[in-house]
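ok trying this again, last paste got cut off
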Amino acid sequence: MTKTRRTVSRLYLALIFLFLYAPIFVMIAFSFNDSKSRANWTGFTFKWYRELFHNDLIMQSLFNTLLVAVCASLLATLIGTIACFGIVRMRKYTRRTIENLTYVPIINPEIVTGVSLMLLFVIFNRLFRFPFGFVSVLFAHVTFCLPYVILSVLPKMRQADYSLVEAAQDLGCTHLQALRKVLVPEILPGIITGALISFTYSLDDFVISYFTNGSTFQTLPITIFSMTRKKVTPQINALSAIIFVIVLAVLIFMNISEAKQLKNHKQRR
């Protein structure tokens, strides 16, 4: 009976993974299809990858997307980490209120956030000539990435041993040196997690970017959406395949690095 349950559970797990990853592998396969058809295989080719790197619109949109994602994740991580230093020192009820308010941008539908930010930027544009484009998209992305950083860093901040900070100060470190050399390395996993989540969400965002991008700045999701009104070319399949392989490689590298760190930590004990 136990063996049958194991077989059924493994089969069930295999079906789930097949359901999740089969469309991605089909997309990757058809990025090498000689024809534009998404149903008939006519031959193997790399021409869509060559054309992809010569498509100025897609390359510019990809650059814009990566630029916004990097800048937004760095700013959100910096602001969110500094905010966590203040939140852990607040009084109990004030801290709970701030933490509950942090959940609002996450629970709030993206279309509501996008429209509200668009209206805010329109007001800023009339009052202060606030530019729509890279700046507006960057501000919007920092806004919705910030809660994820706080929620990633705050638990690590609570687990930190503040007696070590006090001990470092007793041994001659200034307050800033103790924070930088003692506390920050202790909460670094939370900071890295928040930065990666922010980068991923910024890279993937469409709705908020659509409402705040203006007419002169396009991210990759917006460019792909505009292409769907006519026909999506196999170049998008090629680009998606490249992104998937890069993300998979980063994930494997991170898992190997964590496994080595855990092994070294056990050997030291």
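PB: full thing came through this time. The two ends are 41 Å apart (CA to CA).
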